[in-house]
Every structure is written in structure tokens, then in C-alpha cells.
Amino acid sequence: MELNKLTPKEENIIIRKGTEAPFSSEYNNFRNNDIQSPDL
């Protein structure tokens, strides 16, 4: 069975138990203008 080589990012997360930097994901600045919520 031949396995695919990990990318450097995958290797850091899987092997070295690394994580992404805080507030760096694509979902961090998600806004939905259809839903209104009170400002806190």
C-alpha cells in the first residue's frame, strides 16, 4: 500500500501536534447579513 506524502502544513498538525494561528481560519470573519442579532 502506497501512501501520499504529507504537505508541510499537514505534517505540522498531525506529527508535531501543531495548530493554526488564532483567528486565521477562513471562518473567522464570517458574517451573514440575513440574520440580525443584538449588538453586545
Order of helices and strands: H
- Oligomeric state as shown: single chain
Radius of gyration: 17 Å
How many β-strand runs?
0
Q: Assess the beta-strand content as a share of residues.
A: under 5%
Main sheet record: none
Distance between the termini: 54 Å
Low-confidence stretches: none
Tell me the helix content. Answer: 10-25%
Global morphology = elongated
Number of helices: 1
Report the mean per-residue pLDDT as an integer: 78
**Main structural class:** mainly alpha
Provide a descriptive summary of the structure in words.
The protein is an all-alpha fold. 18% of the residues lie in helices and 0% in strands. It has one helix and no strands. The longest helix has 7 residues, at 8-14. The protein is elongated. The N and C termini lie far apart (54 Å). The model has no long low-confidence stretch (mean pLDDT 78).
Pick out its properties.
single chain, 40 residues, 1 helix
Reconstruct the topology from this structure.
Elements: H1 8-14
Concise structural overview:
The chain is an all-alpha fold.
